[in-house]
Amino acid sequence: MLSIREATIKDSTLLSQLLEISYRFHFSCLWNDKDELEAYIAQECSAEQISTSLQSSGHKWFIAEPRHVLNSETRHANIIGFSKIIFN
Are the C-beta atoms of residues 83 and 76 closer than 8 Å to each other? Predict the structure, then answer.
């Protein structure tokens, strides 16, 4: 089963790590200047930036996790995805 939950401030460090890995994988080939890429990642993928975004009423972050039900208890395991919605 898949569980999708709203991210909390406690998730900011993990989201920061996942965002950096995902961004590098998908977009690093588009950057000509690696120093600019590093500066962008340092700014946009930092735990502090994620924390600020999580506290913004204009943003919502969600985390997808596999859900395992054992003895009527729900246990969250590894994160398998995330999303950010920006309201305009």
Answer: no
Task: Using CA atoms of 79, 87, 24, 36 in order, give the dihedral in degrees to the nearest 10.
Answer: -150
User: Which two tokens mark 15?
Assistant: 């989201």
- pTM for this model (two decimals): 0.81
Q: HSE (CB half, 13 Å, CA atoms) of 35?
A: 0
d(CA 33, CA 82) in angstroms, rounded, equals 27
- The pairs formed by 66-72 with CB atoms below 8 angstroms and a separation of 24 or more are 66/1, 66/2, 66/3, 67/1, 67/2, 67/3, 68/1, 69/1
The CATH homologous superfamily to which domain 2-86 belongs is: Gcn5-related N-acetyltransferase (GNAT) (3.40.630.30)
Which tens digits make up the pLDDT trace of 6-35? 999 999 999 999 999 999 999 999 999 999
> Do residues 41 and 23 lie in contact, with contact meaning Cβ atoms separated by under 8 Å?
yes
